[in-house]
Amino acid sequence: MLFRESLVPFAPADLHYGLRSEFMADKCLEKVNLVIGAYRDDRGQPWVLPTVAQAIQLYHDDALQNQEYLPIAGEQSFCKAAAHLLLGCEDSDMQNRKFSFQTISGTGAVHLGAVFLSKFLAVPKPLVYLSDPTWDNHVPVFTHAGLSVKHYQYYSTETRLLNFEGMIQDLQDAPRGSIIVLQASAHNPTGVDPSQSQWEQIAETMKSSGHFAFFDCAYQGFATGDLMQDSFAVRHFFQQGIEMFIAQSFSKNLGLYGQRTGCLHYVANPGSEASSTVQRVASQLSSLQRSEISTPPLYGAKIASLVLNDKTLSKDWLGDLATMSERIAKMRAELQGRLEELGTPGNWRHITTQIGMFAYTGLNESEVELLRTKWHVYMLPSGRMSVAGLNSRNVSYVADAIHDVVGKV
Ligand code: PLP
C-alpha cells in the first residue's frame, strides 16, 4: 500500500463545512445558521441579484455564445472592467503599471499570487504577515504555497477596535521587503477597517519599509454599498506607487459564489522599467496558470462582464448592493437594540460599528458552544457571526439566545 497511514494521515475536517453538515442534520425548527459567508434575503433564502438574473438571461438569449476555452489570462472584457472597478480611471502611465488575470474566484487569486511569490522570491523568502485574526483560509493558502506566515497586531479584544498603533509598530518592525496581506474592506472576521487617514499612514509605512502589499478584496460594494469607498485603500496604494498584488472576488458583491469568479491584479512600482516588469510577471503568471488550471472558467466571467460593462446593468447593480448592505445594517441595529433592551451584560455597540458580512461578537468559545447545543444557533467558535444569516423572523430569537448564554460559561 503506497499511501500508508504514516504517510497520509487524516486531515482535520474543515471547520465551516463541518458546522454546515451539523446544521443540515439538526432537526430543530428554530435552528439558525450564522456560519455561512453568503448573503441571505429576509426569508433566509439565497438571493440571485436581479441584475445578475438579467445578465444570465441576456447571455442565454444570445444563441451565438460559444463554449470554447477562454485565453489563459481569462475573459479580457471582464478583467478590464474588474480592474477599472477597483483601481478607477488611470492615465497611460498607470495603465502600463498593471496587469489583470482571471482566477478561480478570490481564493484562486490569493493562491496564484502566493505561488508566484513563493517561486520567484529570493531565498530566504520574505515572511507573509497576516492580520491577527484573519480569514481562516489565509494561513493554509499561503503555507500550502511554501511561504511562512506571521501575524501583525490588528484587533484589540479589549476595545473591540483596530489596534492601529500595534499594527503600525509591527509593520515597521517587519524585515524590509516583507509581504503584508491587507484586507481592502469589511475585514473578515472582525468587521473592523482602518479609516481613510489610517490607510494613508499604513501606505506611508509600507513605502518607507519597502514592503510588498498583497490586498485581498472580497467585499467591494458589499461593505458600505459604495464601490468607491470600499476600494479606497487599493486606489490610494495604486496612486502612491506601491507594488502589489490584489486578489479580487465577485462571490459576494455579484452573488456569484459557486461560479468562482475573480481576478488577480499585479501593479508594479512606477518608473521606466514598470512596463517590462509587468510583462515578465504576466508571462510567468500565464505559465503558472496553464500548469494549474489551463484556462479559467467561462460562465461567471461572462455574466460579470455583462453586468460591469453594460451601462444600465451596472447602474442597477448599485441598487442590488444597497439592498444587501442595507439589510445587513438593519439586522445589526435590530440585534444590538434587542440585546440592549434585554439588558444583556456587556456593551453591544460594536455590532453596529463593525461593517460588512460579519460581526465579531466577543462571545467566547464555550458560549458559542452553548448557543449551538441549547439554542441551535450556529456560529464560528471565534464568536464570528454572519449577520447575513439574521432576518426579521429570527433576530429576536438569536438575541434571546445570546442573552441566555452570556456569562453562563
Ligand atoms: N478573502 C476573504 C477575506 C474572504 O472573506 C473570502 C470569502 O469568504 C475570500 C477571500 C474568498 O472568496 P471566494 O469565495 O471568492 O474564493
Your description of this structure?
This protein is of the alpha/beta class. The protein has two domains: 15-48 and 318-405, Aspartate Aminotransferase, domain 1 (Alpha-Beta Complex), CATH 3.90.1150.10; 76-309, Type I PLP-dependent aspartate aminotransferase-like (Major domain) (Aspartate Aminotransferase, domain 2), CATH 3.40.640.10. 44% of the residues lie in helices and 12% in strands. It contains 15 helices and eleven strands. A seven-stranded mixed β-sheet has the order 2-8-7-6-5-3-4, with helices on both faces. Strands 1-10 form a two-stranded parallel sheet. A two-stranded antiparallel sheet has the order 9-11. The longest helix has 32 residues, at 311-342. The chain is globular. It starts with 14 loop residues before the first helix and ends with a helix. The relative contact order is 0.17. The site of pyridoxal-5'-phosphate (PLP) has 12 residues, from helix 5. Belongs to the class-I pyridoxal-phosphate-dependent aminotransferase family. Homodimer. Its EC number is 2.6.1.1. This is aspartate transaminase.
Helix content: 40-55%
Instruction: Count structural domains.
Output: 2
Query: Which structural class matches the secondary elements?
Result: alpha/beta
- Report the end-to-end length measured between terminal Cα atoms: 47 Å
- Report the uncertain regions: none
Catalogue the ligands: pyridoxal-5'-phosphate
Q: From the alpha-carbon coordinates, what is the Rg to the nearest angstrom?
A: 22 Å
Q: What is the chains' assembly state?
A: single chain
Widest sheet: strand order?
2-8-7-6-5-3-4
**Order of secondary-structure elements:** HEHHHEHEHEHEHEHEEHHHHEHEEH
Overall shape: it is: globular
Protein name: aspartate transaminase
Keywords: Aminotransferase, Pyridoxal phosphate, Transferase
GO cellular component, one term: cytosol
EC number: 2.6.1.1
